[in-house]
Design goal:
InterPro entries: AB_hydrolase_1 (IPR000073), AB_hydrolase_fold (IPR029058). This protein has 314 residues and is α/β, with parallel strands linked by helices. It has one domain: Alpha/Beta hydrolase fold, catalytic domain (Rossmann fold, 3-Layer(aba) Sandwich). It contains 13 helices and eight strands. Strands 1-2-4-3-5-6-7-8 form an eight-stranded mixed beta sheet, with helices on both faces. α3 packs across α4 and α5 packs antiparallel against α9. The longest helix has 32 residues. The N terminus is likely disordered.
């Protein structure tokens, strides 16, 4: 009798713990999206085969596509300081990538190929003509892949603080696959994800990439926090990123591209020299621009200097 009582007690405690953790996960998500900051401005929708993609369109003139960095806390709001100015002389499209912002976040494994195909399909179906693409951070890798897939869709490629191409050689190992499987679990996976995207963690990770700390405002943090908690399965993108499923060696593709490629780096980005050196070694035609008073987000930290330099290439 005592044996069965112990088993029953253990089951009750386990069930209570699971219910408690589930409630905590639910409360965190509801709190994060309660302000609806990302929905304050009207969006359009691209019905793509892997999930509906939200985007904004502004202005008139030659098309420019803005592609934010690939992160669960990222969205098209990354371009808020330059989007309207660019729209004064261009048709500006700012997209929420699959798994990010207001776009759908299906339960799946995200790869470089999926995002490269998304960019190509978006230009073909929505924009319909050769487009200058401006990408940020690690998104630059799949923009390069997209251009290699179909260079006729691209006018110029402008990379803002791109990731070092050497990081594309990282591949999922046994530990990464195990961790991804754990993150796929309903309750435990959600708990680990919520810890990773806890408000303080997002603030620390993003703010450390700013030279001008005052430019990383509470409004930016609120939007990042909301973006990380929206959608069906935001942790699917997270697991794909941290377990290296989105990585790809793009060096061969980069060497084959004849389109104009310009890299913008912040003057205070300590990784910039290595990144620029590697890009130019693979493709000597790559041009570079250094923006003062900025680190990895020159388009936010020094938007005036960024736009002045950008206008030369558009």
């Amino acid at each position: 009798m005592k044996k069965y009582l112990k088993i029953l007690t253990a089951m009750v405690i386990s069930s209570s713990t699971l219910i408690g953790v589930s409630l905590i996960n639910k409360m965190m998500s509801m709190h994060a999206i309660s302000k609806n900051l990302l929905e304050k401005e009207a969006t359009k929708e691209f019905e793509w085969r892997f999930g509906n993609i939200k985007y904004r369109k502004k202005g008139h003139g030659n098309p420019v596509l803005l592609v934010h960095s690939l992160d669960v806390a990222a969205s098209s709001e990354e371009w808020f300081r330059i989007r309207d100015k660019l729209a004064e002389s261009h048709t500006v499209y700012s997209i929420d990538l699959l798994g990010c912002g207001l776009s759908e976040k299906p339960f799946m494994t995200y790869t470089n190929h999926i995002f490269a195909q998304l960019i190509c399909d978006f230009i073909k179906v929505i924009i319909g003509k050769r487009t200058t693409v401006i990408s940020s951070g690690n998104s630059s890798a799949f923009v390069i892949s997209a251009c290699d897939n179909d260079s006729t869709l691209f006018e110029k490629i402008i990379l803002v603080s791109p990731e070092n191409p050497d990081k594309g050689q990282l591949i999922p190992g046994k530990r990464a696959r195990t961790y991804k499987a754990i993150l796929s679990m309903s309750v435990l996976g959600n708990l680990l994800y919520n810890i990773a995207v806890f408000r303080w963690n997002i603030s620390y990770n993003i703010r450390s990439d700013f030279y001008r700390k005052d430019r990383f405002t509470k409004d930016i943090l609120d939007k990042c926090y909301e973006a990380a908690h929206r959608g069906l399965s935001p942790r699917s993108l997270y697991s794909s990123i941290v377990c290296f499923y989105t990585k790809k060696n793009i060096k061969f593709e980069l060497s084959q591209i004849n389109n104009s490629i310009v890299i913008f780096e912040g003057k205070h980005n300590k990784e910039a020299s290595k990144v620029l050196r590697e890009y130019m070694r693979v493709n000597p035609a790559v041009e570079t621009v250094i923006i003062d008073d900025s680190n990895k987000y020159p388009h936010i930290e020094n938007d005036k200097g960024f736009l002045n330099a950008l206008n030369i290439y558009l």
